[in-house]
Amino acid sequence: MPKTIVTCAITGAIHTPTMSDALPINSDMITEQAIAAAQAGAAILHLHARNPANGAPSIDPAHFMEFLPRIKAETDAIVNISTGGSLSTGIEERMAPAVAASPEMCSLNMGSLNFSMHPLADRYETWKYDWEEAYVRGSDGNIFRNTFADIAKVAQTLGGDHRVKFEHECYDVGHLYNLKFCLDQGQFKAPIFLQFVMGILGGIAANIDNLVFMKQTADRLFGDQYQWSVIGAGAQQMKLGAVAAQMGGHVRVGLEDSLFIERGVLSTSNAQQVTKMRGILEEQGNTIATPDEARALLGLKGADRVAF
Ligand code: KMH
Ligand code: ZN
Fold first, then answer.
1. Could you tell me the pTM of the whole model?
2. Rounded CA gap, 82 and 273, in Å?
3. How far is the CA of 141 from the centre of ligand 1 (A)?
4. Distance in Å, CA 80 to ligand 2 centroid
5. Whose CA is nearest to atom 4 of ligand 1?
6. If you measure from the C-alpha of residue 97 to the centroid of ligand 1, how many angstroms do you get, rounded to a whole number?
7. I need a labelling partner for 90 at 20 to 30 A (CA). Which of 49, 67, 111, 263 fits?
8. Strands 192-198 and 78-81
9. What is the DSSP string of 202-236?
10. What is the number of the ligand closest to the CA of 116?
């Protein structure tokens, strides 16, 4: 059984400050929680930025540069920068932080979808910041755009001279076919790293049948040329992670994808989720990968080749 890579997604662009006091909403919180998550066992840190003025998701490269050097100085974890940090802007702007930082990894969303969290809005009567309610409620009208042209642009720009390895975010089975098409066109090099994103409204539901279906489809399309991981967004985070690891996959946790540590109980930090996932994995006989073991499995360029 190969070692299990734990990714921790620290803050993302789904949740808003009202939803949890633990959600990192500025560079200091992102730095502290990312370092603690790495110390708890996360080999990969999937990072978004926030605007410190109001906690809103940010794709400003300057906001990323406030925490990237500090995280690099304190951990040997692999830094993965999101190229999906805004649900409403084009790919050029979304890529800008990664172009500036040239990290070892970036996310790459493998298709367009109505990425929606609008049902969450009804859970809150008051909001900490003005932007939050419209942001969450209005997501029912959002098309998160990731066309073939967008994907090719990211592949060329970041996969080229920057030698970035992608976390291919696949929200439904069709996205695996999109990836296969791009791979056949020569846009990516094996081994590819698939992230099955399950449980986002607009994508495939988070359950074990669908996980097996995604894995079987990936086996048919990519043979032994890929590594894979799973996000069970929301309540399925720990359960799908545990099952994925038993199937030979890797796992992603973090407050980006779930604010909870168990049903109805908010998580106090990203590190708490990493620690819980690690405990489950070790209990069931999996061994977690160190950052260098993850680098070798995924074929990364190395932490000395980043620009921060
Ligand atoms: N929040 C995840 C469901 C990205 O950063 O590019 C998807 C994600 C997208 O992580
Ligand atoms: Zn993300």
1. 0.98
2. 20
3. 18
4. 9
5. 84
6. 15
7. 67
8. unpaired
9. TB---SHHHHHHHHHHHHHHHTTSEEEEEEE-GGG
10. 1
Average pLDDT estimate for 253-257: 98
| Phi, psi (degrees; rounded to nearest 5) at 277 | -60, -40
Does some domain include residue 155? yes
Task: Band the pLDDT of 2: cuts 50, 70, 90.
Answer: confident
Probe target for ligand 1 pocket from 197, 237, 240, 258, with the most ligand atoms within 8 Å of CB? 197
Model confidence at 87: pLDDT above 90: no
Residue bearing tokens 């946790």: 253
Does residue 150 have its Cβ closer than 6 Å to ligand 1? no
Q: Which domain holds residue 226?
A: 6-114+144-305
CATH number at residue 266: 3.20.20.70
Q: What is the pLDDT of residues 276-299, one digit of tens each?
A: 999 999 999 999 999 999 999 999
The kind and range of the H/E element at 194 are strand 192-198
14 Cα nearest atom in ligand 1:
1
Expressed in angstroms and rounded, the spacing between residue 247 Cα and the centre of ligand 2 is 24
Which region holds residue 103: left if phi is over 0, alpha if psi is between -120 and 50, else beta?
Answer: beta
Which of 166, 256, 259 has most ligand 1 atoms within 8 Å of CB, for mutation?
Answer: 256
Number of structural domains in the chain: 1
Cβ contact 202:115 at 8 Å:
yes
Looking at the domain assignment, is residue 129 inside a domain?
no
Q: Are 218 and 194 in contact (CB under 8 A)?
A: yes
Residue 123 lies in a domain: no
